[in-house]
Amino acid sequence: MENLRALVNRLQKACTTLGDHGENSTLPTLWDALPSIAVVGGQSSGKSSVLDSIVGRDFLPRGSGIVTRRPLILQLNRIDQGRDYAEFGHHAGQKFTDFVAVRREISDTTDRETGRSKKLISSVPIYLSIYSPKLVNLTLTDLPGLTKVAVEGQPESIVQDIENIVRSFIEKPNCIILAISPANQDLATSDAIRMSREVDPRGERTIGVLTKIDLMDKGTDAIDILEGRSYKLQFPWIGVVNRSQADINTSVDMIAARLREQEYFANSPLETPGGRHQIPDSWNSIAEHLDGVRPGSEKVSNVFDNLLPAALEKLRFEKQLSMDNVRKIITEADGYQPHLLAPEKWYPRLIESSLATIKGPAEAAVEAVHRILKDLVHKAISETEELKQYPSLRNKFSLAAVESLEQMRDENKKTTLRLVDMECGYLNVDFFRKLPQDIGKGGNPTQSIFDRYKDSYLQQVASNVLSYVNMVCATLRNSIPKSIAHSQVCAAKRSLLDHFFVELGRKEGKQLDTLLDEDPDLIQRRISLAKRLELYNAAQAEIDTVAWSK
Ligand SMILES: Nc1nc2c(ncn2[C@@H]2O[C@H](COP(=O)(O)OP(=O)(O)OP(=O)(O)O)[C@@H](O)[C@H]2O)c(=O)[nH]1
What is the ipTM of this complex? Predict the structure, then answer.
């Protein structure tokens, strides 16, 4: 990989020297075919700060308004040893070792192209190479910041002109887009996301970078964005805290800024150093299963629409309210002293005895959904590539998810059974008042107690109770799924791993390391592959020697 990057860098350098910059050419150019990384974002979103941070040098001009007014093509070159230095394409051979002078030259050469007006832009790129033992071989392009309106002194076309410059870089399929969005603005207004979505709608070559996390309003956090729930990309989002303007003014150096950034994330209650950033794909996958984006959630609807209604149907209340049963319950309720004036005292007993049987199917539905969620979670975890590499973390992750699901299930059982208890605890008397019935045979309390044990009377009671129980059962048939969806499905989507993340956040570095121990087979495979690569490289060198000696 490193060899490949070095090769691409060398090719880009050759293009630059030979004047092939890709722009304004009707012929296909080598430059366009080479991979590059473009830094895109709204004005003052933090693009230059991110680049400064990657390079580890304070070398880009800063200030208010449009600061980056020409594309800056930045080649980073790793050297084995020696002092850091920079070289401009327009001053080939002149080594800049003073990075303040580099910053000044970027400003001056921008002015030379656009005129002294700080409000104009140009599409002609500046080429800058930086050499350092601390760098990796990469080519990055800093682009003018996207803006929404032209300000005083700027041509009306400036908004479109900047978009055109940016688009000309990022529309190339070989361009990786580093899309910079500030966390203190709504992501829906992010220019970086708007432009990257236009050219890379599936987010396959866009890396989302969230700056200014330290400037977010109190009470808000960046979790939804960093976990890809606000805008999903194929690669994880990266959160950063760059130097503030005050830091720049007081010359806080890059090392101190980086330490402060680490400290910020280490002390942020919801962030964990690395762990939380590794996990979102699995978490997203669980949420997608539950949302029906991936298969699995239809099994939950099957419980609600088919299994629960069928189980309630099977209860057969008519059988429970047969005349023999009604007589038995009434006789038991009367005891040695038959009720003289309050036959309605039997009703709660009769109703409760029927409704209590609903608890069976209700509990079964809670259990069934719990099992489905457990399967979905296991499936999502096993599909998560990053977790395959770390068996201990995967194990802990899985245990935490199951434990959390079990707590939700237990809680859900209580709430669902309480729904049934509530129905038993209070009867809607109005329902009975409105029932079309023969008052003389049924609920008339003044009726002689001797008539009350007659079959016709008991039939009437059974029929009244059956109507009522059927009505309640229909209500519960609707409210039980709601209770299950609320307490298990939505709760799992919302907070399945919250407890786990908090626990993870409390762990020390060493404890985290034990979680990230790799699968021994995988380590062995990597060692074998590295050996094989070494062998191939040696073989390639041999072949080259033979070829050259011909
Ligand atoms: N507090 C804080 N300030 C930041 C952060 N990132 C950038 N800034 C500040 O935001 C301002 C703009 O940052 P730049 O990096 O110049 O932004 P830019 O996108 O390159 O700006 P243009 O090139 O003008 O479009 C500067 O004052 C930075 O110090 C951050 O993460 N936290």
Answer: 0.98
